[in-house]
Amino acid sequence: MSESEFEEIYHQNKQPVFHVVLSYLKNRKEAEDVVQQVFVKVFKKIDQFEERSQLKTWIYKISITTSLDAIKSKKRKKRFGFFTNNDVADELNVVDNAFLPNEEIENSELLERLLVAINKLAEPQRTVFYLSQVDGLGNIEISEIVNKSVGAVESTLHRAKDNMRKELSSFYDEYRRNS
Predict the structure, then answer these.
(1) Considering 67, 86, 105, which residue would you say is the last residue of a domain?
(2) Is 105 in contact with 111 (CB distance < 8 Å)?
(3) DSSP codes, 78-138
(4) CA 144 to CA 52: how far, in whole Å?
(5) Domain identity same for 43 and 115
(6) Would you say 126 and 160 are in contact if contact means Cβ atoms under 8 Å apart?
(7) Please, which pLDDT band fits residue 112 given cuts at 50, 70 and 90?
(8) What pLDDT does residue 169 have?
(9) Domain residues for 58?
(10) What is the pLDDT of residue 158?
């Protein structure tokens, strides 16, 4: 693969990969580091890409796996006392609308509540919800990324939406009354 071909892949996928990684790590600096790791892996393994799925799907798989590995590593370090906890406000302040591209959110409290609700979802639900609702991927593509059947993706997405609805219903009612 030529350098220009890889640069094109990088520029086409950098933002979506960053959004996926940030949804897992919730810390901009850590996410930037993991994004770099993702593209190093993509570069090293591009010859292993078999084109049974879209390149974007393959890169998402690498992004999710690398993010989960980073979380596991972070937890191991925390257990051994090498990790210092970040303030929750700092964790939520990494977003600058990163979770909702192409949409302007004027109310930071609403955005914060939305992020808290997304982050409360169990990992499989958060992944499927994010890929569907934020990245706009279809269930077939999501099933390839998470290695689950389309039916399992649909079920997981349904549960994620129900959990989001429950988590945000009282806030949404209050928000509508005050708007």
Answers:
(1) 86
(2) yes
(3) HHTT--PPPPHHHHHTT-TTTTSTT-----HHHHHHHHHHHHHS-HHHHHHHIIIIIS---
(4) 10
(5) no
(6) yes
(7) confident
(8) 85
(9) 1-86
(10) 95
CATH for 172: 1.10.10.10
b/e sequence 77-114, b meaning 16+ C-beta within 10 Å? eeeeeeeeeeeeeebbebbeebbeeeeeeeeeeebebb
Residues ≥6 apart with Cβ < 8 Å to 116? 92, 167
Q: Which two tokens stand for residue 144?
A: 């390839």
In tens, the pLDDT along 8-51 reads 999 999 999 998 898 888 889 999 999 999 999 999 998 888 77
Contacts of 125 (CB under 8 A, 6+ apart): 156, 157, 159, 160, 163
